[in-house]
Structures
1.
Amino acid sequence: MFNTAMYAINFGDFYYENLDCFANYSKIGLKEIVLIHVIDPSVFHHGLYSVYKKEDEDKIRKFAEIKLEDIKKYLEKSGFGVRYVIRVGNIADEIADEARAENIDFVVLDKKADAKKGYFSFYGSPLYDIIIKTEKPILIMKRVLFHSSSDFKNDAKTSCGVLFDDIVFATDFSDFSLKSIPLILKIPDDVVKLLTILHVIDEKLIRGLNNSTKAELENYEKNLADKFESVMRGLNYRFAKEKSNIAIVVKKGAPCKEIIDFIEETGNKLLILGFKGRDKEGIKEILFGSTAERIISALPCSIFIVK
């Protein structure tokens, strides 16, 4: 069960819509919510001669306290225990530090509409930095619009009330991708209506298989079937064809493209991805090689990143 979540909030375009989602998270066991707002001193440096002023920070802090107190009362009406914290510093560092300090099960982020100026823009911090620095699982919410008056009329509407009903677990069967299994097991049995285990055979491997003998192909298919069976055992056979709550899908091609295309074609609500360790240069961390940034930037649905 997921008892406690931390929501990193910047009072942007979508935060209020996404607050409504928490009311639906009680079905996965959510009881406590920690709200965090980070004041980044760098936002005060608007020009070449801008000077950081403590009084500016104090004004923003007072504004944030008023907003957070209102949000706290709003969420408490749904029966949650709510507390909030305001930190000052680098956004990614402060969120990661608070996530370590708090006894939470996952962190919730949402992407701002303006990717160039966005609080959660993928490249160049802070979303990317938050992902690589935070040790807890991270739920990146697809934009949720409930109000017809919104300026963002073209964004797809997503009902977070059924977010965990229809899940895609994308795996390459590596150790890091299989880290997602314990998280899936935390979701109550009566919540997930359909779990799709999606595996993409990389186009590079396909070229190699084209030159394989019949026996080699049969051996590859058997190994693949064994890997799916291993995942099923890891999930304690909670999902099975006879229960009509599982689908096994194998695609061929570029993993990033195939995953995004599948989500868009089927309209699945939640994509679960395992998190890989640092690359050779130690500069950044990646999911499925170099494809994660494209998947998250495209945001075909809400994405749960597991570490």
2.
Amino acid sequence: MTESNLKKIKPFFSKRKKMLSLAIGLILFLFCLLINPFNLLLKANLVLSIAILMISWWILDAMPMAAVALLPIVLFPLFNISSIKEVTKSYSDSIIFLFMGGFFIGIGVEKWNLHKRIALGIIRITGTNGNKIILGFIIATGFLSLWLSNTATTMMMFPIAASVIHVISKHQSENANIKNFSLVLMLSIAYASNFALGTIIGTPPNVAYANYVVEKFNYTLGFADWMLVFTPLTILLLLMLYWVMVKILYPNHIKHRERGKKFIDNSYKELGSISTPEIRVLIVFSCVVVCWIFKDLINHWQKFIELDDTIIAMAGALAMFIIPSGRKTEDEERLLHWHDTKNMAWGILLLFGGGLALAKALEEVKIMDQLGRLIAAYSTDNVFIMMLAVTALSVFLSEVMSNVAQVIVMAPVISSVALALHMDPLLLGIPMTLGASCASMLPMGTPPNAIVFASGHIKMKEMIKAGFAMNIIAIILITLFCYFLQPLIMQLSP
């Protein structure tokens, strides 16, 4: 085939990518529906067919992910799988409001530039040579992402990083490798956001799995217990990210320069002294974090009220709408107004609802139990090997699939496998969940990956190279932490 013909074919397929993706999903749906390859009962086969349709459209990006998540509202009642009232209950689950509260608090932090003050303050401490700037961004991003959406954190840090790259590129010696510095700084923002596994609300998969464990086993994963095990894992992942990127893969050789230091100092000075709104947002944010951490102790000490993560998040969010900003204006200004939420990630709430509806249907028709028994038949009772295999599968699968949808779909399967092997379900479920957040090779792996890839500083082959190395490191560290430390603190009897 000639080069001219190839040039004609490429635009043809690129223009029709969405239509082809839709068609592939429909073909897979009809194949499963009509052929029934697993010899399931009618209702079970209907649910599996719809699951295949949704998952294929999520993977192929045939439609916006939030739009795909609305399919159960239409298809489940039409196929008599469940009533419209039962389906829509999943879209108002308490987990949805936990996310909503966290998003509102994040908007408040961003609105009053508290995130910039935190980030620039850390960078001023770490110094201005290339490696220290990268380390500063890794620390700042990782810390913020423990409490805020990893997508929001990346978007907060992105413009600061772009400005630093612009200044550093103008004021460096000939030996400095600005290209490597720019590449690593952008990748570090995305990866540090993804690796913030130290809190249950640090990444959406953590929250999804915590909710599944409550629904399935009536077992609550304690916020403090989770931090005790996985905050050290986060710290180690961030240190390995720094060491691998700047010492092995992409060294930058950028030394300390006064101009770079002045830019950071000037950016911090431009913020001025901490404002009254920032102080009030910081107080609300700190109270929410403290309540999340000490929730179990508070509930134990008194019986008048019972806190849970959703109540705490929504209380913090409502406080943002109630507390005055403290600025002198004609109208009484609050820390948040409703119009501030117009750019909030509402789609992730719908995505969660659709995933919960799908998982509930799969659970009701016992498909995941059957699949779990099938996998268990080819599994080993060696806990370490199973943990390693599940973590690796989860990490690489999340490169091409929504990590939230992946956890929602895989959690029942992995739990069934663990129960069939007489293992604690958490031993396989938690490494599967942690692995789902660590996709590093492809832009579509996580939203932070896509954000930094769009900067123009990263080529696909560079992301694949760096991402593969970080995937392997994440698989090894997650497996080791879950095998040696997790059973000492978190244990759910099968």
3.
Amino acid sequence: MSKREFYLSNEPLITNLSNNHKDKINIFGVPFDATSTYRIGSRFAPNAIREAFQNIEIYSKRLEKDLENVNIKDLGNLAKVGDINEMNKMVEEITREIITDGKIPAILGGDHSLTNGSVRAINNCTLVVFDAHLDCRDEFEGLKLSHATFLRRLYEDGCISNLIHIGTRAATKDEWDFVNKDDITIIDMEKIYDLNTGLKRFKDTLSSSNDIYVSIDLDVMDPAFAPAVGNPEANGMSSREILEFIYCLDDFKLTGFDIVELIPTYDNGSTSALAAKLLSELICIADKR
């Protein structure tokens, strides 16, 4: 081993292969925010989440699991590109390769448009989206594909077998009309006011699901809990509420997940800490698969 290999590290990567087994969770970042429509800067989020992750406790008392014993490999960040189609192509191909290798992708965004690529790599999954916005516009600012339209494209292209949208509170009338379909479940903030009712609806909807992909847009949170997001919306979820929903996934097969729309420039540390906590708990759940 050279002195360079011995003394230098590739921080903030969060690879952990200490127990000498093959990696099971593959993390990669997508530093892309070209379709952001208000605040920009989510391209810097992957490393901010990694840094926060390295500074939180990674034993989950609720799940009784220690990430010190979980094999995690951080693949680094996607090459920076400005074209959404090129970014989506790369995300789709990497995600498919990870899944084909029998591993679970954990993706750090970046703006929410990356989910259009990752979900296309999975055949007919149940897509669970935590988001203040429906992201079901037909177009926005002249773009048919962006962080405000990607979910409509996925639905219209038949890429998902079941859609569950949680924390919803901001959309156009056209979007609300669009999601009034039998195979779309909306658990909006009004249903989350009574947390037990919202959780029961979530569990009941999940009961027939097989492969589950989770996408967390951090603007699902109330700005009091996560101020550093691209499009903050008042009257959102609390940290407790989103974690209770995450823990509902413990008995199901988690195929992959992403965490998106963190803007480090606006952060006081609370948003990246929450993102790191969500990353930690989702890895715990994914590793049980």
